[in-house]
Amino acid sequence: EQALKYNRRHWRIWQNCIRFSISTGNFYKAINCARELLRNDQFEGLDAGILLKICEIFLTKLTMQAGLERAEADRHKAHLHRFFKDWTNCLNDYKVWRLYARVRQQLEEPLTEVKECKMSEIRALQKVGWQVDLDQCKLVERAVCELVNLASENGQDLTKEEKAFVRVTVLAIEEGLQRKCKIEDLVERLSQ
Predict the structure, then answer these.
(1) What's the CA angle centered on 59, arms 3 and 90, to 5 degrees?
(2) DSSP character at residue 9
(3) Would you state the pLDDT for residue 178?
(4) pLDDT for the residue 7
(5) For 139-148, b where at least 16 C-beta lie within 10 A, e where not — what string?
(6) What is the pTM of this model?
(7) Rounded Cα–Cα distance for residues 132 and 175 (Å)
């Protein structure tokens, strides 16, 4: 913290402060330091691993499952939700959406909220050219399967919009992989 008095703009100092806050279990200090990096567009010090550790502190110390009263747990949960909103407004990382869905599921939040996080995870994976990148297709496929399974495990159907989203995504994977196979076949024939 002393270093912050002299240099508040350097992301490594904030990252060290986040790590120290995590090691001491200080949830609020960790999210405030991370917010400072987000505000300054200094994303180098932020990744899903840090966010995971912050969430672990939250889940073990600041929830009803950790023994807190409902009102106090809800207050802490509101801070976590605002923090995820701040993070996802700055960085659209599929790992963050994946983590947010898991946290919401552990907090037994409404299924619609968890499914929306899963859909955001899928959207974050769908960057330019994702359909012809086999690794990216596997990640999208995994997320789509998890979305469908999430609904069926809870005895619910996907909404019409969610079904359409899944259908379009699966078709895009199929078309992209077919196109990639055709291109690879063409390249192989040309090299003979």
Answers:
(1) 55
(2) S
(3) 83
(4) 62
(5) bbeebbebbb
(6) 0.84
(7) 9
